[in-house]
Structure formats: C-alpha cells, structure tokens
Amino acid sequence: MNWTQVEAYLQQDDRCVLPLGSTEQHAYLSLCTDNILSETVSVAAAEPLGIPVFPVVNYGITPYFKAYPGSVSIRISTYLKIVEDILDGLREQGFRRILIVNGHGGNTPAQSYVGEWMADHPDCKVKFHNWWNAPQVWAKVMETDSVASHASWMENFPWTRLPDVTMPDEQKPPVDLRLLRTLAPEAARDLIGDGNYAGVYQRPDDEMLAIWDVAVQETRDLLTEGW
C-alpha cells in the first residue's frame, strides 16, 4: 500500500495488524522462522478482510540464544520502547483497533506492557495474540503430536525450511527447561545442542497445513470478533 491508500482505508476502518518476531536459532530451520510465521499468518488472516498488516518487527528478546551465530537479542527495556513507539505511531495515524500477532515466546514482556499502554490510551484496543499456542492451534498441535517444542516439527512449515538442508530422522529427547532458564548463553548452547528442545524435526505437510488452517482462522476471528 502507499500512503494515500492507507489514508482512504482509515476513512472507513481503524483495524490493523502488527506482527512481532525474532531473529534466532531454530535448529535446521531459518533464523527468521518467528518472523516468517507471524507475518505470514497475519497476512493470510487479514488480507481477505482488507485489513492492513504492517511489517513484522524482526528482532525480539532472545538473550539465551546469544551463543548461536545469527541470533540477535534486544534488551527488554529497548524492546518495550520500540513497541511503545510503534503503538503511539499507529494511534497517531488513526488506528484504534490493533491486533499484535506474536511469533516468539521471549517477547511476552510486551504483552504485559500492552495493558499499561491501553490504560493510558482508553480510546484504543489492542489484542495480543501468541498465534502458536492460542487455544485452538495448541489443541490441534497436541492432537497431532504431544511432543512439540521450539525448533521442532511444530515450526517446520514449507516456508520456514531452507533448501538443501536435511532434517534429522529422529525424535530428540526433551531438554531440561528448568535448568535451561538458569544458564548463561554458552552453557545453554551446550545443553540444547542443535537448538530443538524436544520431538521429531519434521512431520508430513498435510498435518502441518491442517494446523496452519486452524491458525489462520483463529487469527482472523480475533480481527472480526470481540472488539
């Protein structure tokens, strides 16, 4: 869209979508997995409704992966200021109903901040949607395979894979998450290894696309209901 199209849109609607992601290790998948998934599910959900999707915020809060090359973390204080500035900018432009589609668990401090921001801006409503563990999606994931985790099969979609990369044909045993949360980045890498927390690395595409259909519909419902 160009600016005149956004201006025309705001004359008849005030909804928009802001995807949040992270650039971090995902084992054999793209470093941009969280960015790809949050933006792609946002576009798939919003485009049929004519609701604009702003570009994904590509960097997030991921200090525990700093020992993995290509993983870039933003401090919590910096991240919350970025989210604040974006929300302020959207409000200034005339958006009043904002759906944040988050693709990275480490970004959850922003979810708490959104409540504070709305308290200071009662003319706006912001929904914070962790698309991958929202109720309907998570139920579908558990129905498919109860061993699902970061960088495992549950994030392995055709659009997060890399060409000429072969996935291991095995099920990785679970990482001790309680221990992981106490470790510095180098020790965390030693514990996690390739980056998968638990489970197989890939499942059939028909299963993944069935999960994706649920994710798109659950996201779309948030755009049309409950404002």
UniProtKB/TrEMBL annotation:
Keywords from the named record: Hydrolase, Metal-binding, Zinc
One Pfam family it belongs to: Creatininase
InterPro entries the UniProt entry points to: Creatininase-like_sf, Creatininase/forma_Hydrolase
GO terms, biological process: riboflavin biosynthetic process
Cofactor(s) required for function per UniProt: Zn(2+)
GO MF entry, a single one: metal ion binding
Family of the protein in this entry: Belongs to the creatininase superfamily.
Protein name as it appears in the record: Creatininase family protein
Source organism per UniProt: Phototrophicus methaneseepsis
